[in-house]
Amino acid sequence: xxxxxxxxxxxxxLFLGIGGAALLLGVQRELRQEAHSWEGERSSQGEYILExxxxxxxxxxxxxxxxxSTEGETVVYTCPEAWRTLxxxxxxxxxxxxxxxxxxxxxxxxxxxxGADGWHRAGEVVLEPSQAPEPRESPEGGxxxxxxxxxxxxxxxxxxxxxxxxxxxxxxxxxxxxxxNGYGExxxxxxxxxFRYCPRLKGLELNLHGERPMREEDWRxxxxxxxxxxxxxxxxxxxxLNLPEGLKSLALEVSPDDGEPLPLEELLLAPVEKPGELLxxxxxxxxxxxxxxxxxxxxxxxxxxxxTEENFxxxxxxxxxxxxxxxxxxxxxxxxxxxxxxxxxxxxxxxLTDVDFDGRPDLLVCLGHFGAQELVRYxxxxxREDGFVxxxxxxxxPNPSVDAENQMILSQMRHSAVSHGWGKYAYRxxxxxxxxxxxxxxxxxxxxxxxxxxxxxxxxxxxxxxxEMARTGYWRSDEYMPExxxxxxxxxxxxWGLMTDRWRxxxxxxxMADFSIYGE
Length: 520
Hints:
Layout: H1 3-32, E1 42-45, E2 48-54, E3 62-69, E4 75-78, E5 83-84, E6 88-93, E7 100-104, E8 108-115, E9 118-124, H2 148-157, E10 176-180, H3 191-197, E11 203-208, H4 216-222, E12 229-234, E13 249-254, E14 282-291, E15 294-302, E16 316-326, E17 329-337, E18 350-353, E19 362-370, E20 375-384, E21 387-390, E22 401-403, E23 408-416, E24 419-428, E25 431-442, H5 446-449, E26 457-465, E27 468-476, H6 482-490
Parallel strand pairs: 10-11, 11-12, 12-13
Antiparallel strand pairs: 1-2, 2-3, 3-4, 3-5, 6-7, 7-8, 8-9, 13-14, 14-15, 15-16, 16-17, 18-19, 19-20, 20-21, 22-23, 23-24, 24-25, 25-26, 26-27
């Protein structure tokens, strides 16, 4: 018998399983949709009126925008794109000019810049909180980057003569920028020219994985840029490093097989005795964060592991150097060991934020994604009088977010495609303790039992009582109206408030409730 006969039933089962999961998620998300009419909302700016309107596709409620002239209210531009109202946070003017910002929970922030023939999408950007339609503070030390669309635009337009005069306004609102010189692409234009056309640039990501290293003059210009955040991937080694002085966040990744190893003496902020003896092997990742009087540096190396007889994944060694700002400059006070090596896909970010709510920022080191559900974990070091101390109980809190108002660490995880959980943790007696948990899942077999064949969803709440978790709430979608469930679980004044900003994760500012947490 041919092999494909055995795989046919398996393939059919997988197809039906995936399709069923997608259907369940669609039903689940419909229950969460908040009633919001984006139709007819207007905002004037100079000679234009920005108007939002609904553009439903028959299945999902979506919103878009158009621009009208204040004189006669003639439509001068209609956006061809639309966004789900479930995820949409705001559509509004960006700053004092005529750029338009669309902020969505699942796709991020998109800027539409005004040009000679209307408005054009200039790419994904990260804006300062004061410029967003709904300002929200981002986790300290986060360094998000722009969409590759901006990179492609610049590679096409940056040449010996730079940008054409009429195209320059497209880049005025860009705050963070991603630029690549990939295989077969032209060399990066000088950073001096790049910064001239992006005068407000705060963050820069350079993926230098082309056929040759970055040119020497570009390294010199790099040190002149007024950047606050910088990410460099160097797949072909380097000539020299000339880093900007004002950097608050820095990430370097290099391939140890290309070029010379990075000398720690060129990177470390504070004087360290015998820096060459800190780690074994060649440096492949360096991350720096400066905030609140602290300078924190993560160093990871690749070396041959004699016990496992493997390198790279099995041979990572990571340490964190902690320095304090003093009147005489930075002083190295502590070296921390990272017991669990970060994963390559999402590890390596540093965050300073208060998680035990004693008024002092604590240190979180992102370890990356783990398990089939790709939950994100952190190594936590609590700040004390003489430095930072490892707090192991924080490690097991998946996808954490910080609810400073209620002094809780909030946790979110996906048990399966149709089952999710949310937890609340409190810092008590020196450890983080789970004090409440909410599970959301469909009732097995409910689609066959219901009259219309629809699923019945259930939410189970458990609360810590006398040292044990006890059920304190239970709700079913066939017993409560969607509006009632919103008031119980999702809305601002509900007991859980799952659709509010306090559930935004440290990792990428995403919410489990709209499934954006797994995006980069």
